[in-house]
Amino acid sequence: MARKLKDSKRKSKKPRKRVFVGLDEDGNPPEFPYVATASSAIHNRGLFAAKRIPKEAYIIQYLGELIPKKESTRRGLAQHDAAQESEDGSVYIFNLDEKRDLDGNFEWNIARLANHSCKPNCEAQDIDGEIWLVALRSIKKGEELTFNYGYDLEHWEEHPCLCGESNCIGYIVSKEDRKKLQKILKKRSSSKA
Ligand SMILES: [Zn+2]
Predict the structure, then answer these.
(1) Rounded to the nearest whole angstrom, what is the distance from the C-alpha of residue 7 to the centroid of ligand 1?
(2) How many domains in the chain?
């Protein structure tokens, strides 16, 4: 028994093996024929439909590294600070389950270029533990691909939305928090008047 304990102790000192999602044996990302990248009117570079995309199509997988929650918190803060400093970039971490998150902050994860919209044409879905952007409707060739980033209300003021849709609330928040933010904004504007 003692020996077993010794073994497991030594094992725990080994650096964590890094797990990358979606790359092939040579470390290359797959091709996603539905998407092209180009500069976006919403923000920086964006993702666009390279051809017509039917409703409910799996458009592109959100690739990245599987990381434990503790590491995720650390990286999330670092990405947030870097984004604030450069007024560019974002936090690219998805909540997967109670133990792990997916960090998509890698150049080979081109899904990270998809912008947020208040009226998105895609949705990020968990498909058996993989995150895919799925078409919410039929999408014309050349349309920008967007999804709701699903941010909670914490720090909402730091995430202005420039999607330009008629229903744009002005900030990036999850569908569920839109109503709450509307109330906050209403209160604020009436107290200013
Ligand atoms: Zn918007």
Answers:
(1) 54
(2) 1
